[in-house]
Amino acid sequence: MGGVSAAALLSGSAFAEKKYDDGATDTEIKIGNTFAYSGPASAYGVIGKGIDGYWKMVNDQGGINGRKVKFITLDDGYNPAKTVEAVRQLVEQDKVFCTFNILGTPPNTAVHKYLNHKKVPQLYVATGASKWGDPKHFPWTMGYQPDYNTEGQIYAKHILASIKDAKIAILMQNDDFGKDYVDGFKKGLGGETNRIAKIASYEVTDPTVESQIIQLKDTGANVFFNVATPKFAAQAIRKAADIGWKPAQYMTNVSASVAAVLKPAGFDNAQGIITAAYLKDPTDKRWADDAELKVWRDWMTKYMPGANQADANYVYAYSVSFLMHETLKRCGDALTRANLMKQASSFKKFRVPCLLPGITINTSPTDFYPIQSVQLEKFKGETWDLFGEVMSAEST
Fold this sequence. Notes:
Layout: H1 6-11, E1 19-20, E2 28-35, H2 45-60, E3 68-75, H3 80-93, E4 98-100, H4 105-118, E5 122-123, H5 148-162, E6 168-173, H6 176-189, E7 196-202, H7 210-217, E8 223-227, H8 230-242, E9 248-251, H9 258-265, H10 267-270, E10 274-277, H11 291-303, H12 313-330, E11 334-335, H13 337-344, E12 373-380, E13 383-386, E14 391-392
Parallel strand pairs: 1-11, 2-3, 2-4, 4-5, 6-7, 6-8, 8-9
Antiparallel strand pairs: 10-12, 12-13, 12-14
Helix pairs in contact: 2-12, 3-4, 5-6, 7-8, 8-9
């Protein structure tokens, strides 16, 4: 028997021994993140609130394998220096088991090396930068949403296929978020990058992007690619309309919320904008009787009372939390950080509620991109309208 006692064998503990790293006990799993509850990206703050509401529901239902989730979320104002301070606090003082869905490319970049050095999982980050899928160099970091590079390629290919004599103007946030999209976009254009008439960049600390939109219109471009976070994306759409510029408009998925971007921009100004989707939009009538969104609406009503159910950021919060919930559940009683990453990297065609039909979660030890498919949609009336087929990185 190799030294294992008969009592241990009878109890099963020889095979199902409980194992814990920091942040996990018999009764609790502690996870943390930072979010922009203030500052230039504060429109995303609702995601952090939604995640908090999700864990409240989980705890009300008895927790995960009998353990309650303690979720600690700190405001970093989308400021990387504050992210560093807050994440150090989460790891060194609060002793969280892992970080989950930290928001933003610059904030995640600021703690990327630190978390990997400490071997603390940086899971399902709230950014689609392509660097989050690099298990060889950063085995403790994994993204969630489709990566910006692939999304950029899909827009470029759609423009080449559908717009005659395309002359393209780009508004770009001047950081890794913006650069990733533009790099993918150029890749998608292939030998036709000379179609880009101008790229105007802005800093997240800028008050407006109005002067950039005037410069872009002056190029005579007939296509506008809006690579901006919600506040600036809405400003850009509104300004283009104010100055009578009517290009074909493409906008990144991260700013596709009807409540946070399109409504403030003005529905009349947003007609015909194209974006890429991977989640069901709560304003789209086709999902009016959808079973998954009905469950989501019931959850919203109970755990997010008074919140705007037209804000797709809450759908994102629910879906990414569902995946984290499942990942923790699969760990069983082996709540070690290594096992958490092992579970995160072994999903096969896993269905997360509110993803578009045909899109599933797939990961492996060498593939840290959980979602690699999107479908294009066009803004029509007061909602998005899906068109075409589900496309993946391979099919671009």
